[in-house]
Amino acid sequence: xxxxxxxxxxxxxxxxxxxxxxxxxxxxxxxxxxxxxxxxxxxxxxxxxxxxxxxxxxxxxxxxxxxxxxxxxxxxxxxxxxxxxxxxxxxxxxxxxxxxxxxxxxxxxxxxxxxxxxxxxxxxxxxxxxxxxxxxxxxxxxxxxxxxxxxxxxxxxxxxxxxxxxxxxxxxxxxxxxxxxxxxxxxxxxxxxxxxxxxxxxxxxxxxxxxxxxxxxxxxxxxxxxxxxxxxxxxxxxxxxxxxxxxxxxxxxxxxxxxxxxxxxxxxxxxxxxxxxxxx
Length: 280
Description:
The protein is an alpha/beta fold. The chain is built from 7 helices and 9 strands.
């Protein structure tokens, strides 16, 4: 099946998933969607008046296989703001074409959700960043060498979206101010997206550092590209869970990633909740 065919097939499934989710939401109209991935798995417990919809109950919804991703939608309010929490999402390295990795973004477009707050786990490249830091993403480098927009234009999306500011400056400013007021340490930098699932080599990390990357991960960029094409404002924070390959002599281990996300979970959740309460 060609990429265009995959995109067309996924596009036809978005409508049925949207209708099922809209029916489950009833009169709820989420203003902010949150990807509750690594480091934010517990955020769902902070959502008030919640309803939970497993992805298995939404037609054609791509199912994640990653440990720590629950696979459900949690809708309710956070800081007085109507939110839609996405507990886990499918990644390109799980065998999904980019059209499936952005499936949930297309659903958000159909639901007319105006803001998407993304989270991810990433490896620290910048010499002053360390595991346990949170990093506000200022820009990204797409090292997946593929675009989720290849194929037919999805209705309502721009064919050639402007990515001069993929991460909304106003929303980023709110996150910075919230971090300062809460006393949560926050770095800021450029995120490089690799498709994985193998961790990068030291040579690749040296290359990314020279390209201007401060952290590296395996998600987020396809979703942001699709969201911006659909007019959704984006902001994203990385949980730096490990040093990137070659920064230290220690081997990389996914168990370490999970351990660090638990350690920073409270600060991460407070930052997201506090920021969303100020979004307009």
